[in-house]
Amino acid sequence: MTDVTEYEYDLLVIGAGSGGVRAARMAAATGAKVAIAEDRYLGGTCVNVGCVPKKLYSYAAHFHDSFDDAAGFGWQLPGPASFDWATLRDNKISEIKRLNGIYQRLLEGAGVTLFNARARVVDAHTVMLKNDQGDTPVTAHKILLATGGWPWVPDFPGSEHALNSNQIFDLDNFPKRFLVLGGGYIAVEFSSIFNGLGSETHLIYRSELFLKGFDQQVREFTRAEMERKGVNLHFNTNIERIEATETAYNVYLTTGEMLEVDVVLAATGRHANVSDLGLEALGLTLDKQGKIPVNERFETALPSILALGDLTAGPELTPVALAEAMQLVDHHFRDTVPKPLDYSTIPTAVFCHPNIGTVGLSEEAARAKFSDIRVYSTDFRALKHTLSGSHERTLMKLIVDDATDVVVGAHMVGEEAGEVIQGIAIAVRAGLTKADFDRTVGIHPTGAEEFVTLRTLTRR
Ligand code: NDP
């Protein structure tokens, strides 16, 4: 048995992103002696180059539609609205700096020691911290790897001209012509953002339809809505090569077409950020997806070394990392044994325009899982757009297991879909039935009330 007191810390966390910071603070709150090492910004991807700045930019892009919508409600603007990229970018930079400060104060307030250093695990209880002052070994009873993910860009001629999602936020100049490669969350979100901000926007995706894994009807509906808003979608297409000219980038596509653009973003997925962590020397191997295998207690093959968040299997989402951090602390620093996390009904939103919100199973997954399902769906023009003149439509959809009447999936494409689905997610997580939805009185007039007034069966 090892004597815990021989170590400098009870927990040393590597990586001050969403999961790492939450675990550090919560562990410290139990009385544990905790340190966290970070060599970049506090708050990780979500705060600095992910969820938060992305949502701020998405708000900015929505104003485009709002200005167009306003006239039907009697508002007249003094002239055509114009957009200033530098104002948005610099306001965003100030806000993120403010959040970095909040994270620092949260950690300090919780009594967590913050090391501004690059960390490398050298043995089951020792981490080498490296910074300008040199290398310092620090020991801990438990070490938590929480270094998240890092954008990955495929190798093709000229791929060095493509930016990744870490580099897209602070562009010096606004791209009049923007191209994104990929068909996942980041590609659809950033094509909506730059399209809304006024760029000529192209999305290049290698297969038939973007957002693989989402409900097919949701994907098709989103395609139609994004096209209506002016995003140029190129499916069954990839980039062959990118050539830089004096003023732009010529992007040659596999279809033979060439697009001249100002910025190319590669949104082609993220890989676990394990470089230089020292895992190989410890004998810690990655799974087929390049993730660190852990058990229910978030222990790697070396039980004193823990891992969570984007480093491990499971959805790469901030709330998942936060939930895992709470579980991890319960397991290792409290006397509770929590129920294993249920990853099956994790709601998610894609902040494309209009937004997608989804929880539970897609129609296709439900069909594969249950012998009979009922699908209720509606597709309508929101009340607001009767006066705005916008042709934007909203899709709402419930999927029900026929045998039990339980709602196993809820999907929406439309304004504030994430906000709506967050509420619906409680019902789906609770295993409520379609009859429970039907018994719920609507809030009128809202779009969300459609979820409790869907009575007509669309298909089985
Ligand atoms: P995703 O994994 O969602 O999508 C990656 C896309 O790149 C896929 O469409 C994939 O195609 C395509 N791709 C992969 N390899 C290549 C290649 N060699 N050539 C061409 N295309 C390729 O990753 P993202 O980068 O969009 O986002 C990373 C993760 O971050 C997401 O999975 C999500 O978990 C998280 N995230 C969450 C957000 C949210 O909650 N709103 C917002 C942004 C990110 P294919 O589909 O064919 O595999």
UniProtKB/TrEMBL annotation:
Give an example GO biological process. glutathione metabolic process
PROSITE patterns, alphabetized: PYRIDINE_REDOX_1
Which coenzyme or cofactor does it need? FAD
Supply the InterPro entries for this chain.
Answer: FAD/NAD-bd_sf, FAD/NAD-binding_dom, FAD/NAD-linked_Rdtase_dimer_sf, GSHR/TRXR-like, Pyr_nuc-diS_OxRdtase, Pyr_nucl-diS_OxRdtase_dimer, Pyr_OxRdtase_I_AS
By its UniProt entry, which NCBIfam families does this protein fall under? PRK06116.1
Question: Which family does the record claim for this protein?
Answer: Belongs to the class-I pyridine nucleotide-disulfide oxidoreductase family.
- Indicate what this protein is called per its UniProt record: Glutathione reductase
Q: Which organism does this record belong to?
A: marine sediment metagenome
